[in-house]
């Protein structure tokens, strides 16, 4: 998986290849029963509250953590979603009014589909907030180390 | 990915401030092996017990440890919950999509078999 986040540009591009035809990727993106089987980080349960893949249709889903706290994301489809491309807006329920725009394209060649997800934000700050999880740049250097330690501690303390 | 319920920030700021210090991280690592007294925690460091007590106070305020009295000594105990919260917060954009797409690979394999 390639993640491109150029400095000073309010955009993130992710490129990922899949050994599958794009019709299957399209299904995985647009059928609620399939979406819940892959979307979201390990450890969070996804409930698809609404998914209406047509021009102007709404989508809404909730990630639940193991304490039952929900994180709601929602938005609209713009243009008819097809196995070529899906255009959708995103909004996190805890930050109403901060919207970002996603263009997902599927390019198939020789049985491999290249997925490109192009996400555009209002401002570089919004992009950085999203990509870094609000981390201040100054403390990022030590973060990996800290991440490892904290993960290890939490796992052991949990077990 | 920013996944944080409201009212979460202040607590996490305290957790990360507490974790930013190498001595305090070493103390937490030591507490993984079980509850310990101030004297036991001070032993590996060339540091006085009052200095270690100051670090313990910071960890306690951040909710990372709790303390109880055993006879004449105070015992420190590692608390897991704030650490789990910190781990959840560290889950970033890359991890969100990397983990999702790994699972999508598996799903696509299933779908290919069905079709």
Automatic annotation (TrEMBL), chain B:
SMART domains given in the database record: HTH_ARSR (SM00418)
PROSITE patterns the record matches: HTH_ARSR_2 (PS50987)
HTH arsR-type domain: residues covered: 6-98
Superkingdom, taxonomy of origin: Bacteria
GO molecular function: DNA-binding transcription factor activity
Residues in the signal sequence: none
Pfam families: HTH_5
InterPro entries recorded: ArsR-like_HTH, HTH_ArsR_DNA-bd_dom, WH-like_DNA-bd_sf, WH_DNA-bd_sf
Protein name: ArsR family transcriptional regulator
Organism per entry: Kribbella sindirgiensis
């Amino acid at each position: 998986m390639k993640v491109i986040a150029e400095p000073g540009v309010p955009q993130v591009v992710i490129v990922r290849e899949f050994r599958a035809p794009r019709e299957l990727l399209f299904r995985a993106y647009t059928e609620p029963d399939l979406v819940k089987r892959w979307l979201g980080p390990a450890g969070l349960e996804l409930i698809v509250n609404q998914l209406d893949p047509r021009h102007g249709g709404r989508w809404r889903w909730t990630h639940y953590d193991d304490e039952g706290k929900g994180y709601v994301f929602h938005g609209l489809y713009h243009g008819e979603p097809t196995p070529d491309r899906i255009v959708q807006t995103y909004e996190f329920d805890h930050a109403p009014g901060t919207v970002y725009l996603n263009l997902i394209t599927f390019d198939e060649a020789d049985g491999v589909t290249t997925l490109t997800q192009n996400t555009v934000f209002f401002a570089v700050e919004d992009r950085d907030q999203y990509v870094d999880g609000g981390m201040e740049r100054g403390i990022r250097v030590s973060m990996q180390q800290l991440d490892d330690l904290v993960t290890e501690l939490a796992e052991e303390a949990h077990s | 990915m920013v996944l944080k319920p409201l009212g979460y920030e202040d607590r996490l700021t305290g957790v990360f401030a507490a974790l930013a210090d190498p001595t305090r991280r070493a103390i937490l690592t030591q507490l993984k092996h079980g509850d310990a007294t101030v004297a036991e925690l001070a032993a590996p460091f060339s540091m006085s017990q009052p200095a270690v007590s100051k670090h313990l106070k910071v960890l306690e305020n951040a909710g990372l440890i709790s303390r109880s009295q055993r006879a004449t000594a105070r015992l420190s105990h590692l608390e897991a919950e704030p650490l789990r919260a910190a781990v959840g917060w560290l889950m970033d954009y890359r991890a969100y999509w990397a983990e999702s797409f790994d699972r999508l690979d598996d799903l696509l394999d299933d779908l290919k078999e069905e079709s």
